[in-house]
Amino acid sequence: MNPLDLSTPTGITVALLPEIILTLGALIVLLVVAWRHRTAGDSRLAGQLSLVMLAASGAAVAWLWVGRARAAGIALMIAVDEYRFAAIALILISAAATVLMSLRYMEREELLAPEYYPLILMGTAGMMFLASAEDLMVLFLGLEVMSVAVYVLAGYDRRNIFSSEAALKYFLIGAFASGFLLYGIALVYGATGQTNLVLIGAQLAAGQVPMMATLGLGLLLIGFAFKVAAVPFHMWAPDVYDGAPTPVTAYMATGVKVAAFIALTRMLFEAFPGTVQLWQPVIGVLAAVTMVVGNVIALAQRTVKRMLAYSSVAHAGYLLVAVWPGTRMGAGAVMLYLFAYVLTSLAAFALLASLGRGGERDVRFDDLAGLADRRPWSALALALCMLSLLGFPGTLGFIGKWYILQAAIAEAHYLLPVILVVTSVVSAGYYLPVIMSMYMKTAHAEPSDRGLYLPRGAAFVVAVSLVGVIVLGILPSGIVDVALRTAGSIAQTVAPVAGR
Amino acid sequence: MRTFLDSIGYGGWILHALVAIPLVGAVLVALMRGRGARHLALAITVMELVLSLGLWWHFDPAGGMQYRAAVDWLPRWGIQYSVGLDGISLFMILLTTLLGPLSVIGSYNYITTRERGFYSLLLALSAGLVGCFIALDLFVFYVFFELMLIPMYFIIGIWGGKERLRAAIKFFIYTMFGSMLMLVAILVLVWKVGAATGTLSFAYDHLLANSAAAGPLAPWLFAAFALAFAIKVPIFPFHTWLPLAHVEAPTAGSVILASVMLKIGTYGFLRFAVPFFPEVALGPVVSGIMVTLAVIGIIYGALVAMVQPDFKKLVAYSSVSHLGFVMLGIWGATVQSVQGALMVMIGHGLSTGALFFLIGMLYERRHSREIAAFGGLARVIPLFSLVLTVVALSSIGLPGLNGFIGEFLVLIGSFEAYPWATGIATTGVIFAAAYLLWALQRIIFNRLDNPENEGLSDLSVREWLVLAPLVAGMIWMGLAPGPVLRRMEPATRQYLEQTRPGSTAADLSAEVGR
User: N or C: which end of chain B has fewer CB within 10 A?
Assistant: First the structure.
């Protein structure tokens, strides 16, 4: 494929093909459900159509990736590199998995409003823009499109007070975070006269970093810290994750996290590579605090969903350790860890959705007692999820953690890795009780999953994810190389800090 | 024998087979239908044992690391699935494969629920153990080191006693804490060595040859390795997980845990922690600490064992004491003391394994392990009592049985370097006699005053099958330790040369002559 000239209509269309297809798809599905939105069958149809749209968008990404698409000169507005393609692929995977696990779930929970699916598609388009943004304005647009869709999704179970609470909380905090982000963008623009990431980087590398840009960077970091739920900006996450319908929680924990982390990494690497000394301490402190607080609070949880919510905060901390070095290996570690985390979380939430009712808020550890006897395959799958989240060898979660440790240690930094492994041990204190309940305790009279089963769509998600987690965990060579290669494709115009 | 083994290409595939057979077996057992799980598991472990026995003849006593093989795993990061065997690991492997079928036979009656799961985990565990002992790549070693945790966690947690949940999680978290810090230390060492030599590699030889690159970080790295292994051994203040795990685990779990898994800790010191950082490890400060802890472990373990009302707990604490001798031997750093440490490792594996089996058999008959519940058993079940006496004497270190050789060599070898510590450790032998003989007296002698003990049946054929090989091993190693020592010696020498760069082989042989 020739380099794409993004200033021509053809060039930009080809570069944006996945997003365009998905946005069009969202509109088509929306049109269909405008006429057909009454029965369960209509809802299912909308879901199936959405899967088709996601697949089409995925095919476009694959075409661009295989064709080694790249931009001619500096990419304007939108990145055209492997880092973007990999991120989009991850986002599409998480969206498709969400749709698959929603199909039966929405019927079971009697949430038969098929607008759900177009919302997922739009949110996904927003995520893709966010992860692809080469320009702060695109970044902000992507963020808003994504966020607005997810606010609605979080409150989708409108008869459930906790779901409404989740939506309201997410909306208020999200708006607040957007404010920080927008202010940061304005200040950076004021200091450099640019919104393009690479051009900002070039501008800042040329001389002294103006105070205004530093301030802007700080506000941007706060905005992102809200979005990825890094401590101390994480307060919203447990309630929102807990209150939202479980497939939506899965979507937030995976898709939103991928988009935000990829955007954060790209922004720091392209716009602020020369100012590592400014943001490294901030990211380092955020990472340390997030790992410690997330893991310790997760230890105190008694319900599975809330535990997973806090564990998701802890994982954001691990990912920040990967961002910290500012090296190519670090960016690779972000991608690899996100991949591991997405696969495992999708499987875990899909399983959780089959273990309770009414949003699964009430599934306590004790409710899992005896699951190994009732549903051996579900129990085995959930046990594997826990081990992968714990970062146990033989799973992709371990490879991800190993790679993060390696990225930090390669920079001769040892404090964050030590905190990472020690807090990982703490996390055994809440992942293992899940396994313990399922295998080592006897069931009580009224298990929360009575009459429930893992529907076919969700089972497919679980099976595919876990096969991936195990196979790639045992034979990680290929995936590790891909992660590193995608990281190498990030544009670096400034004397790179990222030597490796 | 050797020609026959060569004719089937034995050396080329044996190490891979020893890991692969139990792994495949674990899957087969887990997936099979019907109730034949234990028979299949027995067949697989017997096959593993038979195959591994060939090593006894095929292993070249004069050679160093043998049966090397390496397959690329993560080539970009210099990670290979790399294995090999020397005189130190040889006996650990044989111990593991010997205890495999014995634990399966020993569990035939004991395990009655979820049999497939149990035997499958047992097989996976033995694959992990073998892998740990043959790994010559730090990444591979780490993976096996961690992988062993899961099967043991489930074995304790599902088939264990009353406190099994607490025991399982305590065991898991203690071990994981140490091993995670070790992972960081491994990575730091790899990158330091990589920066110094330009080759990024997790290979054992490469790291060993260039471990000086760690520079000022060496004490920290040693501390991380040492902590991981100290928890596993366990050395005195890190031992608190052990009594709980040993007592709560089902018989086969206790046996594997005590006989083989604890040895991973001491093996780790011999293979990694000390050779990588000899200046730190054998320097005055660390030596002082380790020897002190070893001696405290010997005495403390023995004293606490003496007052246990529960026979299984008594044996568990006696492990702390015995492993103290191993640590003393390692830090004695002479040919005798290190060989002695290895002999204690094997001897403890045989005798403690047998003790746990015997306790399990007693428990199956009486559903109690309280020493006070027994008395006068020699009159009711004489053969059982005979075996228990022999095994206890071996554990005490009676000359003519295996326990004696190891502890004797450790004490002789360490005396010169640490006369005081060795002197105090010697009293540990006396304490061992005290706690075990006292327990014997209360269990099999004394008066038969509990009517529940009257109708007990003596050892069955199946139980003889479990105990006979262990007792035979004890007597054989006690009477003729030569062949074993001869196979260990080159590896021991090599180990000492690595840890003492100044000394030559001539010095070492002079030392043996003395």
Answer: C
The predicted structure's pLDDT at residue A338: 96
How high is the pLDDT of residue B99?
Answer: 92
Q: Which amino acid, one-letter code, is at A129?
A: F
Residues 6+ apart with CB under 8 A from A343: A93, A388, A396, A465, A466, A468, A469
Query: Nearest CA to A166 among A306, A58, A374, A11?
Result: A306
What residue of B is the nearest CA neighbor of A431? Answer: B169
Q: Which amino acid is at A472?
A: L
Kindly indicate whether the ipTM for this predicted assembly is greater than 0.95, answering yes or no.
Answer: no
Instruction: Give yes or no for a contact between A1 and A69, defined as CB atoms under 8 angstroms apart.
Output: yes
Task: State how far Cα A343 lies from the chain centre.
Answer: 10
Among the partner-chain residues B74, B142, B153, the one whose CB lies closest to the CB of A476 is: B74
**Nearest chain B Cα distance for residue A71, angstroms:** 29
Within 10 angstroms of residue B104's Cβ, the number of other Cβ atoms is: 27
**What totals of helices (H) and strands (E) does chain A contain, helices first?**
21, 0
Q: How far, in Å, CA of B318 to CA of B304, rounded?
A: 8
> Residue A497: pLDDT above 50?
no
User: Which contacts qualify for A310-315: CB closer than 8 Å, 24 or more apart?
Assistant: A310/A238, A311/A389, A311/A427, A311/A430, A311/A431, A312/A229, A312/A237, A312/A241, A312/A253, A312/A257, A312/A345, A313/A229, A313/A230, A313/A231, A313/A234, A313/A237, A313/A238, A314/A290, A314/A423, A314/A427, A315/A257, A315/A341, A315/A389
Query: What mean pLDDT do residues B487-501 have?
Result: 84
Q: What is the pLDDT of residue A492?
A: 60
* CB pairs A-B closer than 8 Å: 75
Which of A94, A92, A102, A120 is CA-nearest to residue A346? A94
Q: How far apart are the first and last CA of chain A?
A: 27
Strand partners, B85: B66
Secondary structure in 3-state letters for B405-419 = HHHHHHHHHHHCCCH
Whether A470 has its CB under 8 Å from any CB of chain B: the answer is: no
pLDDT (tens digit, 9 = 90+) per residue, B401-457?
Answer: 888 888 889 999 998 888 888 999 888 888 888 899 988 888 888 777 778 877 788
Amino acid B267: pLDDT: 93
The Cα B420–Cα B356 span in angstroms is 33
Q: How distant is the Cα of B159 from the closest Cα of chain A, in angstroms?
A: 8
Q: Does A418 touch chain B (CB under 8 A)?
A: yes
| Closest alpha carbon within chain A to B164 | A440
For residue A410, list chain B residues with Cβ-Cβ distance below 8 A.
191
pTM of the model: 0.92
* Residues whose CB is less than 8 angstroms from the CB of residue B71 and which lie 6 or more positions away in sequence, other chains included: B80, B81, B82
Q: Which residue of A has its CA nearest to B75?
A: A477
Chain B, window 39-98: residues with a beta carbon less than 8 angstroms from a chain A beta carbon: 72-77
DSSP β-bridge partners for residue A71: A4
Say if the Cβ atoms of B157 and A392 lie within 8 Å. no
Task: Give residue B295's identity as a one-letter amino acid code.
Answer: V
Partner A contacted by B172 (CB < 8 A): yes
Q: Which residues of A touch B143 (CB under 8 A)?
A: 393-394
Using a CB-CB cut-off of 8 Å, the residues of chain B touching A421 are: 180-181, 183-184
- pLDDT for res A498: 37
What confidence tier does B501 reach under pLDDT thresholds 50, 70, 90?
Answer: low
User: Bridge-partner residues for B83, per DSSP?
Assistant: B69, B135
Detail the DSSP E strand segments found in A305-358. Answer: none
Q: Is the pLDDT of residue B512 over 60?
A: no
Contact B73 A477 (CB under 8 A): yes
Q: How far apart are CA A130 and CA B392, in angstroms?
A: 70
On chain A, the residues whose CB falls within 8 A of the CB of B74 are: 476-477, 480
Residue of A nearest to B194 (CA): A410
Is the pLDDT at A494 greater than 60? The verdict is no
Cβ-Cβ contacts under 8 Å, B177 against chain A: 422, 425
